[in-house]
Amino acid sequence: MRRFVVRRVAAAIGVLFVISVLTFLIFPTIPNGDPALRIGGRLATAQEIAQIRHEWGFDKPVYVQYARTMEKIFDGTVVSYTQGVNVLDEIRHGLPATLSLALGAGFIWLMLGILFGVVTAIKAGRFADRALTVLAFIGVSSPPFFLGALVIYYLGYKAGVVPLGGYVPLSQDPLQWFTHLIAPWLVLSVLFIGIYSRVLRSTLLDTLGEDYVRTARAKGISERRVLARHVLRNSLIPIISLWGLDFAQVIGGGAILTESVFSLHGVGQFAAESIGRLDLPPILVVTMLTAFAVVLLSAIVDILYAVLDPRIRLSG
Predict the structure, then answer these.
(1) Which residue among 8, 99, 173, 290 sits deepest, i.e. has the most Cβ atoms within 10 Å of its Cβ?
(2) Cα three-residue angle 82-88-90, rounded to 5 degrees
(3) Complete domains list, the chain, with CATH
């Protein structure tokens, strides 16, 4: 177990390093990506631009700029080029909204994805299977900004059932927290429910044809017990893997469209505003946050593998 943890930590450090370097190197090659020009504005003179480059260190070699930026990230003093705010403070401020969105939506899409996957597998070829398959494809094909706009207009503006947007902290008012997040939860979950149900359906149908399942049935074990203890348990392995990666992506700002449509002011919306400004420090920190969350959740998923399937063991 110790070797496993050491390998995971080393892998996490390596992934963060590579991603940070690639992200840092991409921006100087983007048209209008020169941070000195964006800080100076359209009316800045060449002398002012040169002075900005010197003050911010943009005239140094790229490896020196990278080292200075990473130093500022780790000591908590990294500042946005164009917004003039402390990046880590902004992420801390937006993280509660993003975590609230990720936890609620992640629970909904996991539970409903499993439910619909099981129903479509059991009712394969029947009306319920066809109906849920059509709904799954509609969900996968519907972008969050489109669904969010429909929900805000019809359920918020027209019916007044849900708020038009915004985020209320859980510590301030739990009921308002839930009321403001129920619509974003459902909008963000629709896409994942369709994917998870289709993946689980395919896995369940493949597992139902395995020899050990036929043996369990031959022993007289009830169909419900065979499905719950033998088929579903092994079929959940790819679902758990998908959920871990998707959940980590949402935490790292992957729900940019949903947060922007509902004005949740989370990490995703902060990343979207920074991308629009070509502001490197916030984008770099959010990208590293996403990478760290993916690596961490991947390690947790590997441990869950061993719990779900006794044949899987962590080496070392």
Answers:
(1) 290
(2) 65
(3) 94-277+291-308 (1.10.3720.10)
